[in-house]
Structure formats: structure tokens, C-alpha cells
Design a protein that fits this description.
Blueprint: H1 2-15, H2 23-30, H3 41-44, H4 46-50, E1 58-59, H5 62-67, H6 70-77, H7 83-94, E2 95-96, H8 100-115, H9 117-127, H10 140-143, H11 153-169, H12 175-193, H13 195-198, H14 204-218, H15 222-225, H16 231-239, H17 242-256, H18 260-273, H19 275-288, H20 291-316, E3 323-324, E4 330-335, E5 346-350, E6 354-358, H21 365-382, E7 389-392, E8 395-400, H22 413-428, E9 433-439, H23 447-461, E10 467-472, H24 476-480, E11 485-489, E12 492-494, E13 499-501, E14 506-507, H25 515-521, H26 526-549
Helix pairs in contact: 2-9, 7-20, 8-20, 11-12, 12-18, 14-16, 14-20, 16-20, 25-26
């Protein structure tokens, strides 16, 4: 949907070009608006995929991200201006850190950036220099192993020297021109053999030069210096390799700006002296010793871009900063799902118990559970919640909402769910508070065993001060779990012609049922409706009798 909108806007902009505005005016008027861009998550997520996040409070699993529509949430939150910032923000949202001092500093800087548009726009202009897709590859210079020179690399140095010597001597003795020609042919082979090595870095190294220059400029801001007071050392060390790295910038500029003749002359010189392999492996050797410095510069710029993005989200969306409490509570006032336009807000206050939700399909149960999960994640990562107020402890989030068959590994829906819930039970016994989000537990099996297993599992998950948010159609569970769970429901209004949902959370268990009534509205055969109603009444009577007997 976002991609289609971007393509339509692009076509319109070409057919009806707008009057050009200055970069400053554009950044000022667009601040806070949602990006109109194509999101390449394979590249956006690479920094996260390669980063060692073992020290994080929690790393969100792919399963939980899928359940909570993480990529769509990211597209909404991402207001960054550089590819570096985009990768950094993605990692920051998935690897939940625990650093109260950093959060406090971030809020001070966000406040300054929000209040002083002149400084913010100046920073945004710098960050946009890193918005080319090639900037995605900077992280490879400190996260991935670099190619190593071949064992015969010494021969390249010898051939370069012999080529120079024979070229000079050929001006005095023509016989040396023949030797030079032979060496040139060998160098030609080596030169084009090395192209496959060069192509891996023709994107990343020029962007590293640009990144370091942007970082140096941003570091002049005294407020931003507080993010990493020692960064100047990293900038200086990377600048020490700048002269050799500039060769790769020249390569890119020749491809884009100069005529074919200039490119041809430069290519001949590179072949004669084997400049590409000599410079490439020389630069890589030096950069390999500066991985920590490159990552420090990457984080510095990415963090600043992320803070501007947070400020932009808060400018155009009603948000609050959460209270991270030591109490085992989940309290949310007028919370909403950030992806639902004109979302109906709801409030919840869970103290000693968890939450059991009942209601019909499409009434809002799953969206409400997702809204809680998303807001806890954004609260813990970017100190921002989409609510009037929100309080919760520092917790780890796990979910079982969107489960499907794994046909490739011959696993049914039920078996996939069994494995997922088993992992949750294992996590529930660990120290700390956990938030478990579940939707219609064990719906892949029969009624009796679904209710039996559901009750046992939900009781187990709610122990050890954990919080569970679960939806169900099994009304029987409301009585079985009343000791550990607060009962709430969503309901709908059914009239003669339609079903209307108000999406408001209500206390207590669902008392009215409308499934058969909806069948009748959709003109099911009268005999089917009558039989369904009769069976329903019989089952209700049987259930009441069994309850009385117990």
C-alpha cells in the first residue's frame, strides 16, 4: 500500500512538477509527516541481523514482530533522513536496551531539537547527505569480514614496479617497450580479476568518507557531543585513511560526471600501475584495524537521526512518555493502535491480575492486544506511547497471535502453536516480568481439550508476576480463570440489517451471543437457523446443569 502510494505520487510529480522550494523550507514544512518511500527491509534490517545484541534486555523475535506487524509499525515510526539512521532505528526498536541515563539524555536533546527548528533543519540537511542507498553498506566495513589479499599479492607490487621501470626505460631503449607491453598484458588480467573485489566496496567506502564528514560536522554541536564525548578520536583516526579512500570517490565520480575519454585514460593508468588492487587491499588493511571507530561514528550519526525521527512522530501524533515502574501493573489511559486511523481509544488498569478478553470476530479484541504490545515496545525503546498516559514495568514481550501451518517442515497449525506456547511457559519461569500476548489459544483442536489445555496453560503463564493478555471465544474459561484474570469483553450491536461495532472495552464477560443471528441476517435457510438455535439452548442448559452440580 505504501509502495503504491509512493509510485502514484512519483508519477503525479513528473506530470505536474511543483515549484521548487529551498531545502530548509521543505524540511520545515514536512517535519513530522509520514515518509513516502519504498522500504527495503532486507537492507534496513542488516545492521540488526549482524549486530551482537546479547547484552540487550530483550531482542524481539521474528515471531513477535510478525504478530505485531512490526514492519508496518516501523514504516509509521520511521521519519529518519539517512539510511544510517534508518538501520539504527530498526535495531533500536528490536533490541530493547536498559539505560535510564541514556533515555534522560535523549529526552533533553529531543526537547532542544523540537524547540529550535533552525538547528534541527541544519542537522537534517547534513543527514540527507547519507540518504543514498549506498549508505546501507557502510555497516559492512565494521560488521563483516573483509576480503584478504591473495598469497601471491607480493607479485602485484613487483609487477607495478616493473611496469613503471620498463615504461621509463622504453624512452631510452625501444626494446623495453616490448617488455612493458608484456607486463601490461599480465597487469590487465590482474586488474580485471580484482574488479570483483572492488565492486564490493565501491558503494561502502565513499559513503564512509561522507559519514565521517557528517559526524565531524555534527560533533561541533555541544549538545550532541554529549552522546559520545570521545568521538573526535574516532573521526580523526578514520580521517587518517581519507587520502587513500578518496580514490574510490574518484572512481564513482568518473562514472557519473566525466566523459568516457577521461575514464579511459584513468583506467589505463590503473592497469599500468595496478592501482586498484594495491589501494584496495591497503585501505582494507587499515580499515580492519578501525572497526570500533567506524561503528562509533555510525552509531553517533544514527542515534541523532533517530532522535529527530522521534521528535517528528511526537509533533504530529498524540503521544505520551511512559512511566516505567517497579510495580507489577499495566495501566493505560486512552491507548490506541498507531496504525489504525481514527482509532477508538480504550483504557485498562491491570493490577494483580492478567486480562481475559471475550467477544466476536472483528469486535476489536486482537487489535487491542496488539495495541498494548506495540505501545509497551515503543515505550521501552523510544520512550513514546500512543496514549494519554501509560505505566508498566520493564518487561519482556512474547506473543502467539498469528500462527500458521509450516508445510515446508511438515508441521501443522496445532503443532506450531504447541511449540510456541511451550517456549512461553519456559520463559515465564525466568526472573523478571513477562508480557504474554495470545489470541484464541489452541483453536486448532477440539473443544474439550482446547478448554482444558487453555485453562492449564493460562494459569501457568500468569504465575511469577507475569502479565497475560489473551482473547478467547470459550466463555467457559471466564469462570475457570476468574481468580487470575480480569474479565473484559468487546461487543457489537445487531439490528435487522447490519452488525455495528463500537470497539469499546467493557468490564465483565460477554453475555450476549450473535453468531446465529448473523447467519439469519445473511439469509441462511430457516431450518438451519432453527436447528442451530435449538442445539444452542440445549448446550446452554447442559452447561448450567454441570455448573450447578459442581
Amino acid at each position: 500500500m505504501n509502495t503504491l502510494r509512493f509510485q502514484i505520487n512519483y508519477i503525479i510529480s513528473k506530470l505536474f512538477p511543483r515549484k521548487k522550494v529551498s531545502a530548509g523550507e521543505r524540511l520545515k514544512t514536512s517535519f513530522g509527516t509520514i515518509k513516502e518511500a519504498v522500504f527495503n527491509f532486507s537492507l534496513i534490517s542488516e545492521y540488526f541481523q549482524y549486530k551482537d545484541n546479547s547484552s540487550a534486555h530483550q531482542v524481539l523475535s521474528d515471531k513477535t514482530c510478525n504478530d505485531l506487524d512490526f514492519e508496518e509499525v516501523f514504516q509509521f515510526l520511521d521519519r529518519t533522513h539517512s539510511k544510517i539512521g534508518q538501520q539504527y532505528l530498526y535495531n533500536h526498536l528490536r533490541a530493547i536496551e536498559r539505560n535510564e541515563a541514556q533515555t534522560q539524555l535523549d529526552e533533553e536533546i529531543i526537547s532542544e531539537l523540537s524547540e529550535n527548528s533552525t538547528i534541527r533543519i541544519n542537522i537534517q540537511k547534513k543527514l540527507e547527505k547519507l540518504n543514498h542507498k549506498d549508505a546501507y553498506y557502510v555497516r559492512t566495513l565494521f560488521q563483516e569480514e573483509q576480503i584478504r589479499p591473495p598469497k601471491w599479492f607480493f607479485a602485484i607490487r613487483i609487477l607495478s614496479l616493473l611496469s613503471l621501470t620498463s615504461l621509463v626505460l622504453s624512452f631510452y631503449k625501444p626494446i623495453f617497450f616490448g617488455i612493458f607491453s608484456g607486463i601490461f598484458c599480465v597487469n590487465l588480467l590482474i586488474h580485471y580479476w580484482n574488479k570483483k573485489n572492488l565492486v564490493q566496496y565501491v558503494n561502502s567506502i565513499p559513503q564512509l568518507i561522507r559519514l565521517n564528514a557528517v559526524a565531524a560536522n555534527l560533533f561541533n554541536n555541544a549538545s550532541l557531543q554529549r552522546l559520545n564525548p570521545e568521538l573526535s578520536k574516532s573521526i580523526r583516526l578514520i580521517n587518517g585513511v581519507k587520502s587513500k579512500m578518496s580514490f574510490f570517490q574518484l572512481e564513482v565520480q568518473l562514472q557519473g560526471e566525466f566523459a568516457i575519454f577521461a575514464w579511459f585514460i584513468f583506467e589505463i593508468l590503473k592497469i599500468i600501475f595496478l592501482l586498484e588492487p594495491l589501494l584496495l587491499f591497503g585501505v582494507l588493511r587499515k580499515l580492519n584495524t578501525k572497526r570500533n571507530e567506524i561503528e562509533a561514528v555510525f552509531k553517533f550519526v544514527g542515534h541523532i537521526d533517530m532522535l529527530i525521527s522521534i521528535a517528528a512522530v511526537r509533533k504530529t501524533t498524540e503521544t505520551c512518555m511512559p512511566t516505567i515502574t517497579t510495580e507489577n501493573i499495566v495501566n493505560a489511559t486512552e491507548i490506541r493502535h498507531p496504525l489504525i486511523q481514527n482509532c477508538i481509544t480504550n483504557s485498562i488498569d491491570l493490577r494483580k491480575k492478567s486480562l481475559l478478553l471475550t467477544g466476536s470476530n472483528m469486535s476489536g479484541k486482537t487489535s487491542f492486544i496488539r495495541a498494548i504490545g506495540i505501545n509497551v515496545i515503543t515505550g521501552l525503546t523510544i520512550n513514546t506511547c500512543f496514549a494519554k498516559s501509560m505505566s508498566f514495568p520493564r518487561m519482556r514481550i512474547y506473543s502467539a497471535i498469528r500462527i500458521s501451518d509450516d508445510l515446508m517442515n511438515d508441521k501443522s497449525y496445532y503443532f506450531e502453536e504447541v511449540i510456541t506456547i511451550k517456549e512461553m511457559i519456559h520463559e515465564s519461569k525466568k526472573n523478571g516480568v513477562h508480557l504474554f500476548l495470545l489470541d484464541e489459544l489452541f483453536k486448532g483442536t477440539n473443544t474439550v481439550e482446547r478448554i482444558s489445555a487453555g485453562k492449564a496453560v493460562l494459569s501457568a503463564l500468569a504465575k511469577n508476576n507475569n502479565k497475560v493478555l489473551v482473547s478467547t471465544h470459550d466463555i467457559e474459561l471466564t469462570d475457570m480463570l476468574a481468580e487470575d484474570y480480569e474479565l473484559y469483553h468487546f461487543s457489537e450491536i445487531v439490528n435487522e440489517t447490519k452488525v455495528a461495532f463500537d470497539y469499546k472495552l467493557k468490564e465483565g464477560k460477554l453475555k450476549n451471543r450473535n453468531a446465529i443471528r448473523i447467519l439469519e441476517m445473511n439469509q441462511y435457510p430457516k431450518a438451519v437457523i432453527e436447528e442451530a438455535m435449538a442445539i444452542s439452548k440445549k448446550l446452554d442448559a447442559s452447561y448450567v446443569q454441570s455448573e450447578n452440580n459442581t
